[in-house]
Specification:
It is a single chain. By secondary structure, the chain is α/β, with parallel strands linked by helices. Helices cover 43% and strands 15% of the residues. The chain has helices spanning 20-31, 60-68, 74-82, 88-95, 125-130, 132-155, 172-185, 193-199, 209-214, 218-228, 242-258, 275-288, 304-312, 324-327; strands at 38-45, 55-56, 102-105, 111-112, 119-124, 161-163, 189-190, 234-236, 267-270, 295-299, 319-322, 337-344. A six-stranded parallel sheet has the order 7-6-11-10-9-8. It is elongated and about 80 Å long.
């Protein structure tokens, strides 16, 4: 099993996560003699996010989980019966519901293009119609984030990009499934710890400014962290002043705490200011101090355009942490996938 397949939407029964008109139509199809009519539906999209060249497919595993556990509980049936508009024959149909459609889909991680089917569903029209909402919300969201992540990763020109967006995501599912999609899109890991546990995505992160502020001095904060994690010590150097305080203190700690323990420093992170300028200065200082292998990570409201401009301007950055503009795809926040009836079989199966 692929690590990205581990989490199942079946932890919560999402059968009723559907537009109400899917249910009114299902009842109507049954009452009008379409119970066994075989129909085809295609999902496709019309425009690319950010006017890019292609999008990235994501969300397929969550659709599989949903379809495999599609069932109406007694509480679901009682709720629908209480609406007072559905027939008892329909209630009986839902009580014995078993999904039997065939589904074809583009694999996750593949480039997809406007106007082409990315999912095709064939089966009884009641069933094929009913799953529209879940297919759209799942693929629209994850493909949007995977596409944005891919754009950002390509702008980084081979440098690792970490997903840092949980705190700005649109809810818990947006954080978890957004991080999953970002990994599919090319990110090397995520700051979202639960995604490490559930999906096997590398969980990454070091410290916040609050760590540095809690100690009496920045140097004390760096020493404490280095002693805890000498094998992978990355220090956040912009809490006070990158060049006058953070970097000199980091170098001192590297020399006095990391090297004596038999390790090399992993890196520094810059989260504010003119990162291009600061990274170039920091690179020279680290090289002169004997740490040419010490990596420089940049974060703080980055996207593909800022990363591109930083690199064009000569930024000495080895990796990027990208949060809100990736996890929300803020520059193009809607993936306009649609789900349309594309064919109906006659009695002879044509």
């Amino acid at each position: 099993m692929n690590l990205l397949d581990k989490v199942s939407t079946a932890k919560t029964n999402l059968t009723m996560l559907t537009d109400f008109y899917e249910i009114t139509m299902a009842n109507g199809y049954l009452e009008n003699g379409f119970r066994d009519t075989i129909a085809y539906f295609d999902m496709f999209f019309r425009e690319l996010p950010d006017h890019g060249g292609f999008a990235i497919m994501a969300g397929v595993q969550q659709i599989i989980d949903y379809l495999e556990h599609l069932t109406f509980t007694k509480n679901d049936i009682e709720y629908l019966r209480g609406c007072g508009i559905f027939s008892e024959e329909f209630m009986e149909y839902l009580s014995n519901f078993k999904f039997s459609c065939d589904v074809w889909t583009v694999p996750e991680g593949m480039p997809i293009f406007p106007g082409e089917p990315i999912i095709t569903v064939r089966g009884p029209v009641i069933q094929a119609q009913f799953i529209e909402t879940m297919i759209l919300l799942t693929v629209n969201h994850q493909s949007l984030i995977a596409t944005k992540a891919n754009r950002i990763c390509r702008a980084a020109k081979g440098r690792p990009v970490m997903e840092f967006g949980s705190r700005r995501a649109q809810g818990p599912d947006g954080a978890m499934l957004g991080a999953r999609a970002a990994y599919i899109g090319g990110c090397c890991g995520t700051a979202c710890t639960i995604c490490g546990k559930e999906f096997g995505i590398p969980a990454l992160g070091t410290m916040a400014h609050s760590w540095v502020q809690l100690f009496d001095t920045e140097l004390d904060a760096f020493r404490a962290y280095a002693r805890e994690y000498p094998q992978n010590c990355t220090l956040l150097v912009d809490t006070y002043n990158v060049l006058k305080s953070g970097l000199p203190n980091a170098i001192k700690v590297f020399q006095e705490e990391i090297l004596p323990r038999g390790f090399r420093p992993a890196g520094i992170r810059i989260d504010s200011g003119d990162i291009t300028y600061l990274s170039r200065k920091a690179r020279k200082i680290l090289d002169n101090a004997g740490f040419p292998d010490c990596k420089i990570c940049a974060s703080n409201s980055l996207d593909e355009y800022i990363i591109r401009d930083m690199l064009v301007q000569g930024a000495c950055v080895d990796s990027f942490g990208v949060g809100e503009r990736m996890i929300t795809s803020s520059s193009s926040p809607v993936f306009g996938g649609v789900y349309k009836l594309s064919g109906v079989e006659d009695e002879e199966g044509h």
